[in-house]
Amino acid sequence: MTAALLRVRKQLAKGAMQIQQLGTPLTLLLLTLFFGVTFLITLSIGRKQENADHYMTAGNKVAFGISAASMTATWIWASSLYASATSGYIYGISGPIHYGLWGALMILFIYPFGRRIRSLAPNAHTLAEILHVRHGRSSQLLLAGSNVLGSLLSLTSNFIAGGALIAMLSPLSFSAGVLVIATGVLLYTLWSGIRASILTDFVQVCAMLGAAAIIVPTVFFTAGGPEIFTTGAVNLTPEQQNFFSSEAFLNQGAPYIAAVLAYAIGNQTIAQRLFAVREDKIKQTFITATVGYGATVIGVGMLGVLALYLGIEPLDGDVNNLIPQLAASYLGTAMLCVFFVMIIGAMASTADSDLSALSSIMMTDFYGRNIAKPGRADPKLMLLVGRCTMITATGIAVYIASNRLNILDLLVLVGAIWGALVFPVIASFYWSRVTNKAFSIAVVAALAVFFPVRFGLIELVGPIALFSDLLSVVGVGVIAGLMVFGFLGLKASLIAGSLVTLAVLPFGMGFLHLYPVLTASLLAYSISTLLCVGISLLGDQHFDFEVIAQQTGRFDRAAKQE
């Protein structure tokens, strides 16, 4: 490697190298073109015959190609690209693998549960709507409320990613960038809800995948190519160089497995696409999205590993700046524009999904099933509720984004919160004995333990530590069992869960509590599972699953019949 290149790297690591910017006019032009095109696309969706059901589920008939692109685009957040790079920067070469691989596999794990859910409720709008029929109001609102919180935090993290990108690549401030991004996404999503989101996702995912295939190799070779791994190895600790790093697995991989399984089951943005796609295309859609997500996120995450080898310090100490910092340092103006569009596309594709999900929840779970009288929901009023929800949510997310939270921590936190709901939700779709009491107590108790453990309010020492380790080991078994259950059924899942629990028990006792993020997630799984099963077994109530399809019909059709 040349001495000149080494000097350049040292300058960059110290922050002395000038970060290239696109300039305000070019940045605004790119944003105008991107959001202008997406808005024009949504104009093709007519408003003459507005339909509340189509606003939420696109008529349940989206074809394979569009639905697969939409699922891929929704799962590939701008935040997930940033978080994957952060994982690579913190944990080394295995970081992006732990982030991208487990996230991809969780998409795959959704589809068997998805087929069951669609067979029970072919015309449902939200998972919480199904729980309203299955259990009643309290269970419905627990899931709906957690989805409101989760989607708001997801929306916030995407605005943070967009604001960081604009602040890095232009003279515009972070706050201005957040505001521009939020306004652009709101304008085109407000028009037609999920239909606008799905239709624009196809264009956005093509831009993302194409740009990622060009950007990552370009940055790699411009920065020095394969020689980086030789000359930059001194910047890595032994754990960061170890592909099978236990630190990376326990701090990143294991908590993320728990988090993304919860995302897969509890996230309304994913459920909304499950209800939108043609029922016979669910399997193909989720398999395609699995491959697309894994390849893109792992590839972009390697930029974080590259920054680690180069000895780069994140600008202003903010790891959210890593990806735009590398791009601004090693790409020319034309390629930087391509990179800019890639990140904006990733951000917009998930932000519009969050807005659509939030509107669906408020339209269905709060107004349609709780405020309006049974069978008397007004579709036009529902549309107004949905659009007002989008505007309000955007304002709240912009306000929260001003705090510039760590995106990786934010995503793991949201997924862990949903972990308390995973088993009760899945069990409610398969086991007729699960009751509203069992569901509600299990979720509330799990959350009551999760939060103090996650934020260090409970000191894990002595008997408390041992008891938490025991429950955490059970949580590991629950996660393994749920993964097997969707594909192989109850008997195989019980065997897998039991074997994994026994295998982890000798290693987990006296050890797992040292990792509070992981422990909190595992406790949420184990406590919710044990309570849900135990309380359900105490009763002798059986539910008729055929009732679900009868009571989750379409709002517009009901209005016309009346």
From TrEMBL:
Keyword Protein biosynthesis among record annotations: no
Q: Which UniProt keywords apply?
A: Membrane, Transmembrane, Transmembrane helix, Transport
Bilayer-crossing residues are: 26-46, 58-77, 89-111, 141-166, 172-190, 202-223, 286-310, 330-351, 381-401, 407-431, 438-458, 464-487, 494-516, 522-539
| Compartment(s) | Membrane
Top-level division of the source organism's lineage = Bacteria
User: What CDD domains does the entry give?
Assistant: SLC5sbd_DUR3 (cd11476)
- Membrane topology recorded in Swiss-Prot or TrEMBL: Multi-pass membrane protein
Which family is this sequence assigned to?
Belongs to the sodium:solute symporter (SSF) (TC 2.A.21) family.
Matches recorded under PANTHER family: AGR155CP, SODIUM/PROLINE SYMPORTER-RELATED
Protein name from the UniProt record? Sodium:solute symporter family protein
